[in-house]
Amino acid sequence: MRYVELAELYNRLADTSKRLEKTDIIADFLKNTKKEDLENVVCLLNGRVFPLWDSRKIGFSSRLLIKAISSATGSSVDNIEKELNKLGDLGDVAELEISRKSQKTLFSETLTIKKVADNIRRLSDMEGSGSVDRKIGLVAELITNSNGTEAKYISRTVLEVLRVGIADGIIKDAIAKAFDQEIKTVDEAFDILADHGEVALLANENKLGDVKLKPGRPLKLMLAVLSKSIEEGFSAVGTPAALEYKYDGFRMQIHNDGKKISLFTRGMEDVTKQFPDVVKAVSKIKGKNFIVDCEVVGYEPKTGKYLPFQKISQRIRRKYDTEEMAKQFPVEINAFDLIYYEGKKLLSNRFEDRRELLKKIIKEIPREIVLSKLLITDDDKKVQKFFKESVKSGHEGVMFKSLGAPYKPGRYVGYIAKLKEVMDALDLVVVKAEWGEGKRASWLTSYTVACKDGDNFLEVGKVSTGLKEKFEEGELDNFENMTNELKKIVVSQKGNAVMVKPQIVVEVSYEEIQKSPTYASGYALRFPRILQVRYDKPLNEISTIGNVEELYKSQNK
Ligand code: ATP
Question: Which of 40, 9, 50 is nearest to 26 (CA)?
Fold first, then answer.
């Protein structure tokens, strides 16, 4: 299939804001897509070249894209930067520059979907000397052979900001519609496979029922609903319930495929390299094939006292000196669920049975690997005591789990509920940043943050406190580090501000939520402050506009 057909489809999708219309347009397109192109088309529609479970990154900055556009069109870098300041989007700039190009290349090649996806994929594994030029060459080759519309979307795909208003939900609905499947079945398959392309192929062949869970390949995890009281917790999951400590660490899925142990975050990032200590501890689990769900919790090496997540969060991203990091910031595995064991998926087994099996295969070694603390009860008083114990030991509160629940990836009432000591901070994504002044002029110090509204992001305020001024080796929450991270994901700039790809999630506290016409959400935060950078939190799990509204209402009660 020619790429131009997809590029024109993007344009049609950008022209309508109606969800149903978008779904119909995509469903029609998918019906007419050949099987061999289906995976690529669905993946590209989602603005990606790798499936969600695949942690590879394209890693192509706007600076490199400017060079690629320049090389493909003959327009100078200066000129392209000027246009970018005017138009604010490099895709639009690429389209304009193509239209200005005086002479079409004589032997221009027709771009296929496969060619575009392959070239962009190759960007991710180029390293070493000369790799930057080769990367620019791959993108320039695509743009040279593009018309304006193609150049626009190739540029945006490379930067991973498609801007046509299609995300997860719409694509899944469209797959269901195109291949006559139930939305629920498509959803369930997606939660396990985390791959739009593969789900589309299975749907096309009417084989969604055969979805295979494979150790070694991450899946979405089961999440909790929020409850504000013990009563609410019980009513969410039923009585009696399993109560567990809510640890303040980070979620990890541990896979053993018989050959290799792999560790993934809840956002499906591969963190195996970063946690050699966890790999070692896990190799003692009985069995050859398994997927264990757990919380990894940091502790003080000298005293053994538990530490809050932010003290160890740096380990998630640190890929060198990992043994040293493990000594400095040791962690304990608190296992609480077993999703797969010795060739069998346990998704539809009861929670209490999965937990029983988990107990049999783990030999507990404190400060290395243990089972999460458990209490089965229907008694409010016992829960109260358990909650107090949990907080006293340095944890966040308790989780309520339904004894009979299956393992169902996603956040559903009826399976898990959380009750926390401290609540109400928002997890928001940075969408824009501004350069500081005076001695802060070399840092981006003010961040516009947004919550989620379906597939869109709505700004709720600007935050400039909470991060440290001073750069400290190993510490991540400082202006210098944040600036470096933001610079990698700039999509456009205007005056003193840069627009960035929504990627960095921060936990923000505030004094009050107010109604405000300043931000697209209709709300603003008074005295916002960044509590921590949530490297572990995927974008699709940040606070929603519904959460903001609910918190606004609850504070006015
Ligand atoms: P929070 O911001 O409180 O960490 P969250 O929004 O990140 O919550 P939720 O799904 O609301 O995520 O809360 C569940 C999270 O709590 C899990 O992702 C996991 O990291 C953590 N957790 C801690 N202890 C447990 C436990 N015993 N069972 C399940 N999850 C636990």
Answer: 9
- CA 334 to chain centroid: 23
CA distance 255 to 554: 41
Pinpoint the alpha helices (H) of 123-182. 131-144, 148-159, 168-178
The pLDDT score that the predictor gives to residue 5 is 97
Task: Give me the active site residues, please.
Answer: 246
Beta bridge partners of 463: 447
Instruction: Give the integer Cα–Cα distance in Å for 382 and 405.
Output: 22
Give CATH for domain 3-158: 1.10.3260.10
List, for the chain, all residue ranges whose pLDDT scores fall below the cut of 70: 102-107, 422-423, 471-476, 556-557
Ligand 1 centroid – CA 130 distance (Å): 44
What token pair was written down for 547?
A: 């959460």
Instruction: Give 223 Cα–ligand 1 centroid separation in angstroms.
Output: 7
**What pLDDT score does 494 carry?**
83
pTM given for the model: 0.82
Amino acid in the structure at residue 350: R
Tokens of 377: 């009860």
* Nearest CA owner, ligand 1 atom 19: 251
Please give the structure tokens belonging to residue 99: 């239209």
**Predicted local distance difference test score (pLDDT) of residue 474:** 58
* Helices and strands counted in the chain (H then E): 20, 22
Cβ(224) – ligand 1 distance below 6 Å? yes
Judge residue 311's burial from the number of C-beta atoms within 10 Å of its C-beta, 0-12 exposed, 13-18 middle, 19 or more buried.
middle
Q: Determine whether the shortest distance from the Cβ of 401 to ligand 1 is under 6 A.
A: no
The answer, yes or no, to whether any atom of ligand 1 lies below 6 A from the CB of 306, is: no
Dist. CA 401 → ligand 1 center (Å): 12
> Parallel, antiparallel, or unpaired: how do β-strands 410-411 and 222-223 relate?
parallel
- Whole-number pLDDT of residue 357: 98
Q: Are 431 and 497 in contact (CB under 8 A)?
A: no
Task: Look at the domain 426-555 and name its fold.
Answer: OB fold (Dihydrolipoamide Acetyltransferase, E2P) (2.40.50)
DSSP state of 108: P
**pLDDT (0 to 100) of residue 532:** 87
List the chain domain ranges: 3-158, 223-420, 426-555
Select from 3.40.50.2000, 3.40.50.720, 3.30.470.30, 3.40.50.2300 the CATH code of 223-420.
3.30.470.30
Cα–Cα dist 448/509, whole Å: 14
Q: Is the CB of 208 under 6 A from ligand 1?
A: no
